[in-house]
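Exercise 4. Each item below gives a protein and its sequence. For each, produce the structure-token representation.

Item: Integrase catalytic domain-containing protein (Austropuccinia psidii MF-1).
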Amino acid sequence: MGPLPSIIDHKNYILTIQDCFSRLTVAIPLLDKAGAKIELQRWILHFMNTTGHKVKAVRTNNGSEFKNIIFEKFLKTKGIIHEYSIPYEHHQDGKIKWTNRTISEMARTSLNAADLPITLWPWEYRHSVWIFNCTLHANLVKTPHEIVGKHKPSLDMLRAFGSKEFLYNHNFRKDISNREVVGFHLGVEQDSKGWLFCILDKGKIARAENVKFDESSTFQNDRARIQEIQARDLFDG
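Answer:
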């Protein structure tokens, strides 16, 4: 999906990957379409290593980003069949399009509720995907997370997107520094047990486990500061 403007990491695209059997979905922010094949390779390896399941086939659209000799060689060495969806035959990729539409609507609703600009959409999209994987869907008796992970998902880490987060300032100095760093919530860190948040003053993404939340408070009054950071182009990951 994309391009859409983004102020965090300059990532204007989203690569959506879905397991057809479980509907487990992954959303990966991208700088450009060229990075799609690399991220897809990484996901295939991660999926096979962590679940023990073999990926038998991959279906992509006809985009040039997936027509690459190195990518095809990777699939061949893993014994994976590469299928291309036929243009205008929407039934062939209907599930992923429905998923993209559903998650996009979830993301849009959360952004509006938090009164945050659409430029944060890649991270809200990832947050919505996390919720999607922990939710029951039609024709499934278990959530995607439970089908693949073999255990029920825990919603203990679920927090409202855009809510204020308070993190202890490890660089705290009694004379000049605040004890807490204030940011807004960007979702669950998928590779470790923690949360992602953005520090407005620095325009940086931080990861932490010991965080205090104020889900009743949003950054409605700080919208101008967010737009100011966007203009200054401070987000560099």
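Check: The chain has two domains: 13-149, 164-232.
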